[in-house]
Amino acid sequence: MAALPSYAGPLERFWYYAFRVLCGSIFLFLIAPIIVMIPLSFNAEPYFTFTPEMLALKPEAFSMRWYQDILDNEQWLHSMKNSFIVGAAATFLATSLGTIAALGLSRSDMPYRTLIMGLLLSPMIVPLIITAAGLFFFYSSIGLAQTYTGLILAHTALGTPFVVITVTATLSGFDRNLIRASSSLGASPQRTFFKVILPLISPGVISGGLFAFVTSFDEVVVALFLAGFEQRTVPRQMWAGIREQISPTILAVATILVGISILLLATMEVLRRRSERLRGLSPN
Amino acid sequence: MAAITENDGLMRAADGTPLKQALARATRMNKARAFLLTTPLLAFILVTFILPIGMMLFRSIEAPEVSEAFPKTVAILEQWDGVGQPSEEIYASLAAEMADPENRFKLGKAGTRLNYIESGFRSLMNKTVRRIKRVDAGPYKEAFIKIDKRWGETDTWKIIRLAGDPYTYRAYLNALDLTQAPDGNIVAQPEIKQIYVTLFERTIFVSIGVTIACIALAYPISYLLATLPSGTSNLLMIFVLLPFWTSLLVRTTSWIVLLQTNGVINDILVSLGIVGTDDRIQMIYNMTGTFIAMTHILLPFMVLPLYSVMKTIPRDHMRAARSLGANPAIAFGRIYLPQTIPGVGAGSILVFILAIGYYITPALVGGQDGQLISNIIEYHMKKSLNWSLAAALGGILLAGVLALYWLYNRIVGISNMKLG
Amino acid sequence: MSAIKPSRLLIAGLAAIGLTTAAQAADTITVVSWGGAYTNSQVKAYHEPWIAKTGNKINSEDYNGGLAEVRAQVEAGNVTWDLVDVELADAVRGCDEGILEPMPLGELPAGTDGTAAKDDFIAGTLHECAVGQIVWSTVYSYDTTKVATKPTTIADFFDLKKIPGKRGLRKTAKVNLEWALMADGVAADKVYEVLATPAGIDRAFAKLDTIKNDVVWWEAGAQPPQLLADGEVVMTSAYNGRLFNAIVNEKKPFDIVWDGQVWDIDLWVMPKGSKNKAAAMDFVKFATDTERLADQANYISYGPVRKSSFAKVAPAMQPHMPTAPVNFKNPLQNDFGFWADYGDELNERFNAWLAG
């Protein structure tokens, strides 16, 4: 919305500011819950409200004790390790499988594209409780329930649609003549993929991978059904915490997770810019 | 094709095959190649995702327990005319199968299954099993009726006959608050037990509400983001993207912190003197909490498609309308709004699909009246162990979601789905 | 054409499998219980001494009760849990469904006073498929700083006029229906008789209706003390051991109303097909001997199920036991038979009532 035009009448003027206030409050609604929690995680008291001392900004009202709590608690540390192991493995699998599939899907001669795309994207659409129930029975019967393998495979399936979507989107702006040029110069298909295609679509692949990672990193319903104690991930641990005893430790964990989200968001932004630059270079 | 000679005028490829054929072959090869690339993922999804869900849904029609525990009795009951009391032979057969030590661990499951059709059947079974073992010789009919007079009723046996069928659609009836009367007719459940239709309705109602709330909130800010200079809008976009990338559980937790009785919002209201210390507002562990948290969590899914559509609408359109004399409201309603409908549609279906299957947030902040259909599915999966019913409820939910998915494909095209 | 060499996928897969097998090294048993202060007491009293004695390991898992995981594991023939701490009604139901291993009741050690195990355990705490361990009780508690009039009876819990404010109750039919009847004037020994009749059920729900709008429902045992501490409720039902933990260890200003306490037992069961049967059985025998049961009562106020353990419970803990005479004035024993028979239909109605 550009600046107010000079011909604007008083009503329009009022509307202009009212609209900005409205938008401001919606942005506040979006961000406030995430922000509010952060100072509370430094509360020296085990409460979720701002104590008068906190509002007076007295240093003794703040403490790192809940962060210390995380470091002292073997379960939290273990669950963080689990989240990273499961997330990394699922991301690797989802990105590999998804990128290859996207290469096929983006070809103009792909048969049954809509049907296959529909099947491949279904893990994103099916309600998680149904997915979790189905996988619970299936993995129980083949001995993969309550194992890392089971959880990794489940998270891989949930993550692939995001890779397929982002990589297909990137490939739609990809100039296929580059492949022909590469092969005509004698490169093998593998070499063409790694030297020509992959560098150009890497922003899409990486952002797809990030989505897959976040999906796994944030997933709790399937973990509730499939993860045993050994495989407990951070969200699973948080779930137990929220349901049983919301200690400020949860807020500290949440604050750390927000930090991770900011990091991911920044990475995505860098990728987006890079992708725009690369596309600007392509003949399209 | 007729015989081909060297000079029939056809164009040929380098190896001498007619060009048309060679092209067709190349197309086939390309198709196969494209398809082959998708096969690893397709196979993976089919085996680790679609197959398991299919197998789970299959449970909704499976009911083998009664025929496994009482195979002979069920077989004889098939022949029974369904009038009055069955013959002594049937009573004797049931007594034998109840007393069979091999059956010790099948009876409980059979009782549970029968109880799904007629409440109280499990207790009848347990009671009868405990006592019938002490009866050494017939006539069994009298012995059974002495244990409980229900064994003399025609309906009791009709129910066993019904349950003897290892496949049934009864779980779907239950999922719709219906049941099968002993004579096989479909009737409504007693009112005190009707719950699932209410829950489906509530789920749909909440999803529609959340979708509308998301449209109402997303529309203005998407418009703002799409019309601001790109530097400012990129900065403001963080307000949308940060929640989007933040863990669902983190966001749910923060709403608990904000909304609970001794939470931040109530504290502010009390300190401003708007509400008294003793009548703090209950905003969480009820429908209000579920609604607010779900709207917050799903809002980015509405903003992003809406923003990308609005971004493509040239600003000249509005200016042209204004210069032709339309007042701002008319210009907006006639020119701008129609062009954003595809974005609203895409966002709405996405938000609705996600909302309808929501589990985590209602479970954590829903309290008693904020529970949705997913939560009762979880209850039957984990607590009551009525897996047939869980599968049937899941099947109905899934059918609804897939219908919307199909609609989304028709309107937006799944290949056009965008993220971030 | 393949982007990633299959061998790399294979290695990733093998690495993942390696992680799982490493976690299931020999003679590690998985013991599943209810978490929080309760599991802690078990870890101190049973797990740690057993680990020290045998050199075996224990995976301690938490769950929220119920038989879903056990049934799925047994049905699938892939059992990863070795012992589960369950309520009596679940033990009975699981045994009937054939998803639990029979317990070698004859091999349980005699009490330290020489009484044979079958006489040493309180009547009803040994079952074909389950070995009892503790007596626990559902009571209700209030925040002494938040109520004007102190509640003393179960009827007070339902009396919104006398004590206004929100109440916490467990989101299940069990105990709530019993309390509703007792608050409505039914004597403890008549509760299940009345509840077995349709009129009795209606009466119980009608009584619950009177407070329905003022109830906050909880599911996990750790929730109610938290609800009370956060001021979300003025009083709440809770397991007595959790309240003990809040009052004695965390010094919360709560008081327990023992009137109308519904007591129950928790038992060890073994899912059928457990892969570490021998080690797990050894654990059950060890963990249910006189000394261990008495010791666990030192960490949390749940009573031992062996008579020979009573005297060994530390005197300081005695007044916190559900079975202490001063607390045991108007108790009701949870009727597992009743709940095994009617649990499904009552919970079905309870859910419909809640949602309606």
Task: Quickly list its features.
heterotrimer; A: mainly alpha; MetI-like fold; 12 helices; 0% strand; C: 356 residues; alpha/beta; D-Maltodextrin-Binding Protein, domain 2; 2 domains; eleven-stranded mixed β-sheet; 15 helices; 11 strands; 19% strand
- For the record, give the distance between the C-alpha atoms at the N and C termini of chain A, rounded to a whole number: 29 Å
The helix count of chain C comes to 15
CATH-level-2 architecture of the largest domain in chain A: Orthogonal Bundle
Any guess at the CATH architecture of the largest domain in chain C? 3-Layer(aba) Sandwich
Report the CATH topology name of the largest domain in chain A: MetI-like fold
- Biggest protein-protein contact in the assembly: A-B, 96 and 91 residues
Broad structural category of chain C: alpha/beta
Portion in beta strands of chain A: under 5%
The total strand number of chain A stands at: 0
Rough shape of chain A?
globular
Stated plainly, the CATH topology of the largest domain in chain C is called D-Maltodextrin-Binding Protein, domain 2
CATH classification class of the largest domain in chain A? Mainly Alpha
CATH superfamily of the largest domain in chain A: MetI-like
Describe the biggest sheet of chain C?
Answer: 11 strands, mixed
